[in-house]
Model the fold of this input.
Amino acid sequence: MPDTPSQRRRFFVGAVVSAALSLGAAASFAAYPDKPIKLIVPYPPGGATDVIGRIIALKLGEQLGQQVVVDNRGGAGGNIGAEAAARAAPDGYTLLMGALTSHATMATLEKGKIRYSITQDFAPVMVVGSVPLVVVVNPTLPVKSLKELVAYGRAHPEKLNYASSGAGAPQRLAAEIIRSDAKIEMTHIAYKGSGPAMTDLVAGQVNMMVETVPAALPFITSGKLRALAVTMPGRISMLPEVPSAVEAGMPALDIASTFGVLAPAGTPEAIVARLNEALSRLVRSPEVKEMLLKQGVYAAEPATPAQAAQRIALEVARWEKLIAATNIKADE
Done:
């Protein structure tokens, strides 16, 4: 305790101010949110991240009692929107609908170029879902399984080529896992998006691709493409007749496009916890699960912010290792 009256006076005033600030902060957190929240989607409307973001925004707004507004900020492979979210005020009123797998690959591919860190500039709230991928080929390619694809590649060096929606896309990385694991040669043909890539695959301009299940499903059911395996440890409900990567003999091919909600670093823990609690209720909801599944998204199991941060760190480390081993470049 201070000795002199003036010291005691300063101590008392300081304690009162500190207590008032603490009470004010607590009241602020308790009132959160008291105005609309902006959810930045770092891609144009219509893609998987946007579709998931709109479902989450609608239902999160209902949970919190405030409107959650989707703000599409596409460009630079998701980096423009992600940077905007990272630089926003850490008050819980600006969030990012993150395409976590893509952001994790960009952390390595665009190292030194991007102006944010997915592991340092965000406070992860929760992983909300994932979209599985499927290995598909043009039916003119004489293979009906992943093992036959590998055998064909070994018997016909350099005859296999594959399309992708871009260097850092999960689809590209999955194809590189096949190439690396099977030790076969495949020529990468990059496109500016999945749409043009799928068009050329169906037309026979390229003979193989790894694509999200929702994008490939109509072509598989119509017979325009042949599915060889899903890139998951087990079979999935949308393609129950297609073997998993494990069944197909390639357990390393375990990759999905993962999505989650992140807040700017420095967002108060109480607000992050409030958002995490609301999102946990969402992903448990049968209604939300059904809404997501209709879009090809499997809802995640509820998890803590710490577990979300660990998931992102593991994603970054995994793709950094693969990118280095396969010498993938952002512009190839």
Summary: The domain at 35-130+257-326 is CATH 3.40.190.150 (D-Maltodextrin-Binding Protein; domain 2). DSSP finds eleven helices and ten strands in the chain.
